[in-house]
Every structure is written in structure tokens, then in C-alpha cells.
Known about the structure:
Elements: E1 2-6, E2 24-30, E3 41-42, H1 45-56, E4 66-73, E5 76-83, E6 95-104, E7 108-112, E8 119-120, E9 127-136, E10 143-148, E11 155-161, E12 176-181, E13 186-188, E14 203-211, H2 215-221, E15 227-232
Parallel strand pairs: 1-2, 2-4, 3-7, 4-12
Antiparallel strand pairs: 1-15, 4-5, 5-10, 6-9, 6-11, 7-10, 8-9, 11-14, 12-13, 14-15
Amino acid sequence: MIATGIATSCGAAQIGISAIGGGLVLNSGPLSTRAFGNGPTQWLGSSLAAVHASINASGVSTNGRITFVAAETNAGLAFMALIDQELVTGVNAGGNVHMDSVADGLNQAYLKDTSGNVVIGANGPNARIASGNFGWNSNGGGDGFAWANLASGNTTTFRFNKIANLALGLNAASTFQFVTWDGVKWAEVVVPASLLSFSSTDDYGFSATVLVPSPGFLAVAGIPMLGYAVRRRRIA
């Protein structure tokens, strides 16, 4: 199990890894107060590049990877999937990957999709779905998707698939990574290599649930916190 938690001023969240599937607790960290665009569904390229720059400044490379990170943003608690490193915007679709993601119907969604093929469902009383193919300039460009305005108990799922006969444009041997905030900087979480690449059926998926640490943990930290519990699994 991979779990993700928030700590705004110290790396107080516990991290535990078990034998099969692992088990992690990740801290969310502060990003730009304008991490997204001007409104829900709009994730400006410049804002996405600023998110990468913040993570890269800690020595974590996001180039050629799909990076999952929890962050405090101008849209509240957000869980982001950063697809390749956004440096420049271009129309050449040298990178291609399919995504299906589901969240609570009241969550906000932010999307930067160069090819314009990802569709986000409307807010509603039940689930909200985002699905489609990302196609981006893998030579310096990138895309991204995030669920935001997350609250305790919200559950999200992510599933990525390679697209037949189209170039992935990512590091095939180590496509995915999870990044945590250690109280001072961002850091890549050590995960078994077998959990960082597509399966034999060319898919990769997990679910995530926003949760609240125990009262004792809050007393030690001295601040209110939320988090994610993320379990990697095959999503049918």
C-alpha cells in the first residue's frame, strides 16, 4: 500500500513499506499559491512548469516520468499526476498515454492536455470521471492532471495504459514515481522497481483515499493535517 499524508511545516508523517505492494506514507507540501490556472479544468502550461520547477529545485527529476504528488495549492488539497516535464509547449505528440481517473463528484479537476483528447465529467452528487489520451511534445513538453479541493474521506483512482502503435515518450523501465515533502524539500520515495513500470498488460493503476491522522499524531505535529492512502492495484 502507498499512503500519502500532509505536513505543512515538518516531515512528521510515518512511512512504512511492507513486503508485497509496499506501504508508504507521503507528506504533501506547499506549492505555488497559483499552482493551477484561472478556474477549474484549466491548468496553464506556465503554472504546470512552475510546479515542476519547485520539485526539480529539490533535486528530483520529473523528465520522462509520470510523477504523483500531493500538494497544498490555491485550490486546496490536490493530488497531481505530472506527465513528463513541462518546459515548452509544442504540438508534436511524441509522447502518448491513456488515463482513466475517478474522484468524488464535488472535487475540482485541473487539466493540461496538449492534444485536447481528455474529457472531464461534470460535477455532481456521485463520481466524477476524467478519461482520454494524452498526446504531448515529449521533447521538452508535458501534460498534467489533478484532482483538487479534496476533503477527508474522498477517494480517487488512477489508471494509465500504453496506447498501441504510439510512442510512449516516457522512461519505459521506470515510468512512475511518487514524491513526498520532508518538511524542507521534495524527495522521491523509494519504491521497488517492479511497482514503477507498466504491467505485462501495459496498464498501471491504484486508488487513493484522503484520510485524517490519529489524534495522537496531530498532537505531536501541532497542526491540522490531511492525507492520502494509496493502494496500487489493477483497476478493471
